[in-house]
Amino acid sequence: MSIKKLFPIFLLGLAVLVGFDSSALAVGQPEPWQLGLQEPVSPVAVEGHEFFILLTWLMTIITVIVLLLLLYVLFRFSAKRNPVPSKTTHHTLLEVVWTVVPVLILLVIAIPSFRLLYFADRVEDADLTLKIIGKQWYWTYEYPDNGNFTFDSLMIDEETAVAEGKNRLLDVDNPVVLPVGQNIRLIMTSDDVIHNWAMPSLFIKLDAVPGRLNETWTRIPAEYAGTTFYGQCSELCGVNHAYMPIAVKAVTMEEYEAWVAKAQEQFASADLPSSVSVASAE
Length: 282
Description:
Layout lengths: L2 H15 L25 H34 L15 H30 L6 E8 L2 E6 L5 E5 L4 H7 L11 E4 L4 E7 L4 E5 L4 E5 L5 E5 L9 E6 L11 E7 L1 H14 L16
Parallel strand pairs: 1-5, 4-10
Antiparallel strand pairs: 1-2, 2-3, 5-8, 6-7, 6-9, 9-10
Helix pairs in contact: 2-3
């Protein structure tokens, strides 16, 4: 591997070792030459970021120890220093150590991992629900707690993004609007193939599967009101997989209520019209 290819890996390792501060990055979106994860925003994202740091330190320590052991073996047991090789075939203490130590390492990883999985799974008392439907190749959103209106969210074209000073391949025509300081239940499904609703700043990456509802939750702190968070589909869902971004705009509760009143008029309701009758199964 060339020095040119090793340089980004070296920078990432250096950033982790010196405690790189990701808060210097723009909130809610990636940055050129970004090191580390995006700034964690939601409670789940904060827990996930801490778990990521734990795993990174564990991997670094294990790698350094293994490297030192290899260097020691190369030096201590070289042919020059050991012209007659050892006939040792078993070492009970060594075998116990190299069995027990990995088990202990896995326990150190498993306990916070399971805690994070349960924490991110669902919220008992949600203040509102957002339903997310993946389609080829855009997202549909429903607000069942606010009049059950629905709308599609599609990526804006490159010319519009440049003209309006927006983010190419990330901004959409109708972003998701969510209030800050609220526990928000997110339920996901798909109309065609498997998609994945991924929002790095909120530590969400969940499959949208046809015929199934997957659930998670989030809460955006009040200080992020006015911030737009960006994500993308993270499941290979077809030829336009790269062109179904996600934009979530965080607003205050007053702004959210005003937006809901406007959205109820702008977007058609997901309910059946009152004039439509459903045939009885009897």
